[in-house]
Amino acid sequence: MLLPRKSNAALAFFLLFAVLSVFVARGFTKSWDTQTVHMFAEWRRPLTTRVMQAFSDLGNWRFEIPLAFGIAALLWRWNHAGEARRFLFVAVSGEAIYALAKLSFHRPRPTIVAYLSDAGWYSYPSGHAMLAWIVWGFGLALLAHVIAARGVRLALRTTALALPCLISISRIYLGVHYPTDVLAGLLLAIGWVLVWWGPRSLASRWDTSSAPATR
Fold it and tell me: Which domains does the chain have, with CATH numbers?
Protein backbone atom coordinates (compact mmCIF):
# COMPACT_ATOMS: atom_id res chain seq x y z
CA MET A 1 0.00 0.00 0.00
CA LEU A 2 1.37 3.42 -0.98
CA LEU A 3 1.32 5.87 1.89
CA PRO A 4 3.01 9.30 2.03
CA ARG A 5 5.35 10.08 4.89
CA LYS A 6 5.24 13.07 7.20
CA SER A 7 8.28 15.09 6.24
CA ASN A 8 9.23 18.57 7.40
CA ALA A 9 11.94 18.50 4.74
CA ALA A 10 9.33 18.03 2.01
CA LEU A 11 7.30 20.93 3.39
CA ALA A 12 10.44 23.06 3.37
CA PHE A 13 11.03 22.40 -0.33
CA PHE A 14 7.40 23.09 -1.16
CA LEU A 15 7.64 26.32 0.82
CA LEU A 16 10.75 27.33 -1.13
CA PHE A 17 8.83 26.60 -4.33
CA ALA A 18 5.95 28.78 -3.11
CA VAL A 19 8.31 31.65 -2.22
CA LEU A 20 10.08 31.39 -5.58
CA SER A 21 6.70 31.36 -7.33
CA VAL A 22 5.69 34.59 -5.59
CA PHE A 23 8.98 36.21 -6.60
CA VAL A 24 8.50 35.12 -10.21
CA ALA A 25 4.86 36.26 -10.30
CA ARG A 26 5.80 39.70 -8.94
CA GLY A 27 8.64 40.09 -11.43
CA PHE A 28 11.42 40.14 -8.83
CA THR A 29 13.45 37.59 -10.80
CA LYS A 30 12.93 39.11 -14.25
CA SER A 31 16.30 40.86 -14.47
CA TRP A 32 18.28 37.83 -13.32
CA ASP A 33 16.29 35.49 -15.54
CA THR A 34 16.88 37.69 -18.57
CA GLN A 35 20.60 38.18 -17.93
CA THR A 36 21.13 34.46 -17.41
CA VAL A 37 19.37 33.47 -20.63
CA HIS A 38 21.49 36.05 -22.52
CA MET A 39 24.65 34.71 -20.87
CA PHE A 40 23.90 31.15 -21.94
CA ALA A 41 23.09 32.34 -25.46
CA GLU A 42 26.55 33.89 -25.72
CA TRP A 43 28.05 30.41 -25.25
CA ARG A 44 26.22 29.00 -28.26
CA ARG A 45 28.43 27.14 -30.71
CA PRO A 46 27.39 24.52 -33.29
CA LEU A 47 28.96 21.58 -31.43
CA THR A 48 27.75 22.77 -28.02
CA THR A 49 24.26 23.20 -29.41
CA ARG A 50 24.16 19.65 -30.73
CA VAL A 51 25.32 18.33 -27.35
CA MET A 52 22.75 20.37 -25.47
CA GLN A 53 19.99 19.27 -27.84
CA ALA A 54 20.97 15.67 -27.14
CA PHE A 55 20.77 16.22 -23.39
CA SER A 56 17.43 17.95 -23.78
CA ASP A 57 16.14 14.98 -25.79
CA LEU A 58 17.09 12.66 -22.91
CA GLY A 59 14.66 14.64 -20.77
CA ASN A 60 11.85 14.03 -23.24
CA TRP A 61 9.00 11.68 -22.36
CA ARG A 62 10.06 9.36 -25.19
CA PHE A 63 13.15 8.46 -23.14
CA GLU A 64 11.87 8.96 -19.63
CA ILE A 65 8.69 6.87 -19.80
CA PRO A 66 10.49 3.70 -21.00
CA LEU A 67 13.28 4.40 -18.49
CA ALA A 68 10.84 4.73 -15.59
CA PHE A 69 9.14 1.45 -16.46
CA GLY A 70 12.52 -0.21 -17.01
CA ILE A 71 13.81 0.88 -13.60
CA ALA A 72 10.59 -0.30 -11.95
CA ALA A 73 10.84 -3.66 -13.74
CA LEU A 74 14.42 -4.18 -12.57
CA LEU A 75 13.55 -3.28 -8.99
CA TRP A 76 10.62 -5.71 -9.12
CA ARG A 77 12.80 -8.45 -10.58
CA TRP A 78 15.36 -7.90 -7.83
CA ASN A 79 12.75 -8.39 -5.09
CA HIS A 80 12.10 -4.71 -4.38
CA ALA A 81 8.47 -4.66 -5.47
CA GLY A 82 7.52 -1.99 -2.92
CA GLU A 83 10.24 0.34 -4.18
CA ALA A 84 9.21 -0.36 -7.77
CA ARG A 85 5.56 0.55 -7.17
CA ARG A 86 6.46 3.66 -5.19
CA PHE A 87 8.96 4.89 -7.78
CA LEU A 88 6.58 4.34 -10.69
CA PHE A 89 3.82 6.18 -8.84
CA VAL A 90 6.10 9.13 -8.05
CA ALA A 91 7.29 9.33 -11.67
CA VAL A 92 3.78 9.20 -13.16
CA SER A 93 2.25 11.56 -10.59
CA GLY A 94 5.19 13.93 -11.10
CA GLU A 95 3.98 14.41 -14.68
CA ALA A 96 0.57 15.44 -13.37
CA ILE A 97 2.01 17.79 -10.73
CA TYR A 98 4.14 19.83 -13.09
CA ALA A 99 1.30 19.97 -15.64
CA LEU A 100 -1.08 21.36 -13.00
CA ALA A 101 1.57 23.84 -11.90
CA LYS A 102 2.05 25.08 -15.46
CA LEU A 103 -1.69 25.59 -15.81
CA SER A 104 -1.75 27.47 -12.51
CA PHE A 105 1.03 29.95 -13.34
CA HIS A 106 0.55 30.41 -17.11
CA ARG A 107 4.07 31.78 -17.49
CA PRO A 108 4.92 32.30 -21.18
CA ARG A 109 8.11 30.87 -22.62
CA PRO A 110 11.11 33.23 -22.91
CA THR A 111 11.16 35.37 -26.01
CA ILE A 112 14.66 36.71 -25.33
CA VAL A 113 16.68 34.57 -27.74
CA ALA A 114 15.91 32.19 -30.59
CA TYR A 115 14.71 28.73 -29.59
CA LEU A 116 17.03 25.87 -30.48
CA SER A 117 14.57 23.18 -29.40
CA ASP A 118 10.86 22.46 -29.25
CA ALA A 119 9.34 24.70 -26.60
CA GLY A 120 5.96 23.18 -25.81
CA TRP A 121 3.43 25.07 -23.71
CA TYR A 122 3.84 27.10 -20.49
CA SER A 123 7.26 27.69 -19.01
CA TYR A 124 6.97 27.51 -15.20
CA PRO A 125 8.01 25.11 -13.77
CA SER A 126 10.25 23.14 -16.11
CA GLY A 127 8.87 19.66 -16.65
CA HIS A 128 12.21 18.58 -18.11
CA ALA A 129 13.99 19.62 -14.92
CA MET A 130 11.45 18.07 -12.55
CA LEU A 131 11.20 14.71 -14.31
CA ALA A 132 14.95 14.55 -14.96
CA TRP A 133 15.60 14.63 -11.21
CA ILE A 134 12.86 12.10 -10.48
CA VAL A 135 13.45 9.60 -13.30
CA TRP A 136 17.13 9.93 -14.20
CA GLY A 137 18.27 11.20 -10.82
CA PHE A 138 16.36 9.32 -8.18
CA GLY A 139 15.57 6.36 -10.42
CA LEU A 140 19.25 5.60 -11.08
CA ALA A 141 20.03 6.19 -7.40
CA LEU A 142 17.44 3.53 -6.52
CA LEU A 143 19.13 1.07 -8.88
CA ALA A 144 22.54 1.88 -7.41
CA HIS A 145 21.18 1.14 -3.96
CA VAL A 146 20.39 -2.49 -4.87
CA ILE A 147 23.39 -3.32 -7.08
CA ALA A 148 26.37 -5.05 -5.51
CA ALA A 149 29.09 -4.12 -8.04
CA ARG A 150 30.87 -1.09 -6.60
CA GLY A 151 31.94 0.30 -9.99
CA VAL A 152 28.41 0.07 -11.39
CA ARG A 153 26.99 1.73 -8.28
CA LEU A 154 29.46 4.60 -8.60
CA ALA A 155 28.68 5.02 -12.32
CA LEU A 156 24.95 5.05 -11.68
CA ARG A 157 25.20 7.60 -8.86
CA THR A 158 27.51 9.83 -10.91
CA THR A 159 25.07 9.73 -13.83
CA ALA A 160 22.15 10.32 -11.45
CA LEU A 161 23.74 13.61 -10.39
CA ALA A 162 25.31 14.78 -13.64
CA LEU A 163 22.60 14.01 -16.18
CA PRO A 164 19.69 15.90 -14.52
CA CYS A 165 22.01 18.91 -14.13
CA LEU A 166 22.93 18.80 -17.81
CA ILE A 167 19.33 18.30 -18.92
CA SER A 168 18.28 21.31 -16.81
CA ILE A 169 21.12 23.48 -18.12
CA SER A 170 20.31 22.50 -21.70
CA ARG A 171 16.83 23.98 -21.39
CA ILE A 172 18.25 27.39 -20.49
CA TYR A 173 20.97 27.17 -23.16
CA LEU A 174 18.40 26.30 -25.84
CA GLY A 175 16.37 29.38 -24.89
CA VAL A 176 13.16 27.57 -23.92
CA HIS A 177 13.29 28.10 -20.15
CA TYR A 178 14.24 30.72 -17.61
CA PRO A 179 16.61 29.60 -14.83
CA THR A 180 13.82 30.06 -12.29
CA ASP A 181 11.71 27.55 -14.29
CA VAL A 182 14.49 25.00 -13.85
CA LEU A 183 14.98 25.82 -10.17
CA ALA A 184 11.25 25.43 -9.55
CA GLY A 185 11.30 22.01 -11.22
CA LEU A 186 14.16 20.93 -8.96
CA LEU A 187 12.38 22.09 -5.79
CA LEU A 188 9.17 20.29 -6.77
CA ALA A 189 11.06 17.11 -7.64
CA ILE A 190 12.92 16.91 -4.33
CA GLY A 191 9.83 17.83 -2.34
CA TRP A 192 7.69 15.20 -4.07
CA VAL A 193 10.27 12.44 -3.62
CA LEU A 194 10.65 13.37 0.06
CA VAL A 195 6.90 12.97 0.55
CA TRP A 196 7.22 9.29 -0.36
CA TRP A 197 10.64 8.36 0.99
CA GLY A 198 11.54 10.80 3.76
CA PRO A 199 14.95 12.50 4.21
CA ARG A 200 16.80 9.58 5.84
CA SER A 201 15.59 7.04 3.32
CA LEU A 202 16.34 9.41 0.46
CA ALA A 203 19.84 10.17 1.76
CA SER A 204 20.64 6.46 2.02
CA ARG A 205 20.05 6.05 -1.72
CA TRP A 206 22.80 8.59 -2.40
CA ASP A 207 25.24 7.41 0.29
CA THR A 208 28.25 6.04 -1.60
CA SER A 209 29.60 4.39 1.56
CA SER A 210 26.44 2.39 2.28
CA ALA A 211 26.20 -1.31 1.47
CA PRO A 212 23.76 -2.29 -1.30
CA ALA A 213 20.32 -3.50 -0.27
CA THR A 214 19.86 -7.25 -0.34
CA ARG A 215 18.11 -8.52 -3.45
Answer: 31-206 (1.20.144)
